[in-house]
Design brief:
Elements (H helix, E strand, L loop, with lengths): L1 E6 L4 E7 L4 H17 L4 E8 L5 H16 L3 E7 L1 H9 L7 E4 L7
């Protein structure tokens, strides 16, 4: 799993995740999540899950961990471009009631 960190102009941090958010992948990105929490740079963190085809309990745990730590710092977390199995699982677990989730919307040709 890969993680790209993008610092926005409006104090928003965007994390673009590529690959499966399973135990192995989440173990790889945990140090980056801890670094983001320690930085306290901005009030908004956005995780782009467009390139995440699968998420398991480890991925859910990583998202909830980040959400709780950011909330302690009065920062917000939202998820974008969520689709497929990750979207279904996040809704099933009612994560969308605590964390803003923007589903993937395909571009249609006119």
């Amino acid at each position: 799993m890969k993680l790209e960190y993008i610092q926005g102009k409006d104090s928003q941090i965007t994390l673009v995740i590529q690959g499966e958010m399973d135990a192995d992948g989440c173990r790889d990105i945990q140090p980056y999540l801890d670094q983001i929490i320690a930085q306290e740079k901005g009030p908004k963190v956005l995780i782009d899950l467009n390139q995440v085809p699968f998420i398991d309990s480890s991925g859910i745990g990583a998202i909830v961990y980040l959400y709780k730590r950011l909330r302690e710092q009065n920062c917000t977390l939202s998820l974008s471009q969520v689709h497929g199995q990750p979207l279904e699982l996040l809704k099933l677990l009612r994560i969308d009631q605590a964390i803003s989730i923007n589903p993937f919307v395909p571009v249609t040709e006119k």
